[in-house]
Automatic annotation (TrEMBL):
InterPro entries: 6-PGluconate_DH-like_C_sf (IPR008927), NAD(P)-bd_dom_sf (IPR036291), UDP-Glc/GDP-Man (IPR017476), UDP-Glc/GDP-Man_DH_C (IPR014027), UDP-Glc/GDP-Man_DH_C_sf (IPR036220), UDP-Glc/GDP-Man_DH_dimer (IPR014026), UDP-Glc/GDP-Man_DH_N (IPR001732), UDPglc_DH_bac (IPR028357). Keywords: NAD, Oxidoreductase. NCBIfam families: NDP-sugDHase. It comes from Hyalangium rubrum. Belongs to the UDP-glucose/GDP-mannose dehydrogenase family. Pfam families: UDPG_MGDP_dh, UDPG_MGDP_dh_C, UDPG_MGDP_dh_N. This is UDP-glucose 6-dehydrogenase. It catalyses: UDP-alpha-D-glucose + 2 NAD(+) + H2O = UDP-alpha-D-glucuronate + 2 NADH + 3 H(+). GO terms for molecular function: oxidoreductase activity. Its EC number is 1.1.1.22. Pathway: Nucleotide-sugar biosynthesis; UDP-alpha-D-glucuronate biosynthesis; UDP-alpha-D-glucuronate from UDP-alpha-D-glucose: step 1/1. It is an enzyme of class 1 (oxidoreductase).
Length: 432
């Protein structure tokens, strides 16, 4: 099939590349000329394992193209994906201006029946708005489909190529058939395509993310209580997760959720609730807990040291999670700003996010070339992002480098007993 993908951000680029991989002829469109030029030269603008390789392969096979010309890409396409950003608006709602601008541009370029797909995360009712905008500028036949994306950064290709499920929201039989053909290479009996109406599809995306955020905040609350009553949340987590009704995923307490989705989507769903007279009190609590959690390592450090102004701290991990350079809503930002605000010095290391982090901290922190270099002379080490390379350090070497052997483990990746044996003062999350 001939496909156009509007927007070469995370979602657009991954979707475009994977759809080319399954044999389609895909053209990705972006208004950012610099970005398109870089992509045409084979430079991938984001760090995502395996993406650059797949991009090159499909470009070489002439199945994947990049352009700034929306009309050229849309004219010949049978399916057009809208994958532009939906930034947070002033009252927490999703700002739809990029989506609706794209819809209008697509409408003007339509030449024959086309399926227009909302891939961006958009509030309930957006498919209807997109349909109205397109219908105002064209007489050509088209259908609008809501097809939310569930990919996780760091595992995006795997999530697209082997999804748990594909959600397709439309009332049009014709559009369903085309979308079914497009996704057939990726689905199996146990991970099916779920057909539904557009509003339910839009709601599914928000509800899924809000549920996952709720699980995390719930566990962070339980962890806070575990610390007080002398229980270890790591045992509690395993004990809970073994109940098949609960399951193990997303029960890891930590320094709070970040990224481009959970914080924004929880707020947007609450905004939809408010607009419709339904107060989503549970989500308000989820957010509140998350904000507290992002400050918990700083609070632990203040309790341990009292005054932080003459101290030097090592921070391992800056990205909001491993295998990405994404710094959006990263808990490291809250921690590092807190430390700097208290007059401390910060030496940090992240395997890939240093460049992205410079936009946040500039030269107010020292960027070390390795975890060990960051630990030199440090009064304590904060583990913020659980990159694999941080999991098994040489603790004696680390101890030799640090001024004080104190570790604040924001992801519970170290074993408290081993830490004690190695001579460290260890603080985890929800551990006695
Ligand atoms: C998420 C959803 O998982 C994905 O389906 C959706 O399309 C986009 O949002 P992503 O933001 O890439 O994906 O990351 P995810 O792996 O879900 O983690 C989100 C945040 O939750 C991270 O900050 C992570 O550290 C945190 N988290 C996750 C926990 O604190 N504990 C857990 O048990 C799991």
């Amino acid at each position: 099939m001939k496909i156009a993908v509007v927007g070469t951000g995370y979602v657009g680029l991954v979707a475009g590349t994977c759809l080319a991989e399954s044999g389609n002829d895909v053209t990705c469109v972006d208004v950012d000329e610099g970005k398109v030029r870089a992509l045409q030269a084979g430079v991938c603008p984001i760090y995502e394992p395996g993406l650059e390789e797949l991009l090159h392969r499909n470009m070489k096979a002439l199945r994947l193209h990049f352009t700034t010309s929306l009309s050229a890409a849309v004219e010949s396409a049978q399916v057009v994906f809208i994958a532009v950003g939906t930034p947070q608006g002033e009252s927490g709602d999703a700002d739809l201006s990029y989506v609706l601008d794209a819809a209008e541009g697509i409408g003007r370029a339509l030449r024959q029946y086309t399926v227009v797909v909302d891939k961006s995360t958009v509030p309930v009712g957006t498919a209807d708005k997109v349909r109205e905008v397109i219908a105002q500028v064209t007489k050509v036949e088209f259908d609008v489909v809501s097809n939310p994306e569930f990919l996780k950064e760091g595992a995006a290709l795997e999530d697209f190529l082997k999804p748990d499920r594909v959600v397709i929201g439309t009332s049009s039989e014709r559009a369903r058939r085309i979308m079914g053909q497009l996704y057939a290479p990726f689905v199996r009996t146990e991970n099916p395509i779920l057909y539904m109406d557009a509003r339910s599809a839009e709601m599914t995306k928000y509800a899924a993310n809000a549920m996952l955020a709720t699980r995390i905040s719930f566990m962070n609350d339980i962890a806070a209580l575990c610390e007080k009553v002398g229980a270890d949340v790591d045992f509690v987590r395993k004990g809970m997760g073994s109940d098949r009704r609960i399951g193990h995923p997303f029960l890891h307490p930590g320094v709070g959720y970040g990224g481009s989705c959970f914080p924004k989507d929880v707020k947007a769903l609450m905004a939809t609730g408010r607009e419709n007279g339904v107060e989503l009190d549970l989500l308000r609590a989820v957010e509140h807990t998350n904000q507290r959690q992002k400050r918990c390592l700083l609070a632990k450090a203040v309790r341990h040291f009292g005054e932080l102004s003459d101290k030097t701290f090592a921070v391992w991990g800056l990205a909001f999670k491993p295998k990405t350079d994404d710094m959006r809503e990263a808990p490291s930002v809250e921690l590092i700003e807190g430390l700097l605000g208290k007059g401390a010095r910060v030496q940090c290391h992240d395997p890939v996010a240093t460049q992205a982090a410079q936009r946040y901290f500039g030269n107010r922190v020292r960027y070390a070339p390795s975890g060990y270099a960051a630990a030199e002379g440090a009064d304590a080490l904060f583990l913020v992002t659980e990159w694999n390379e941080f999991r098994r350090p040489d603790f004696q070497r680390l101890k030799g480098l640090m001024k004080n052997p104190v570790i604040f483990d924001g992801r519970n990746i170290f074993d408290p007993t081993q830490m004690r044996e190695e001579g460290f003062t260890y603080y985890g999350i929800g551990r006695p």
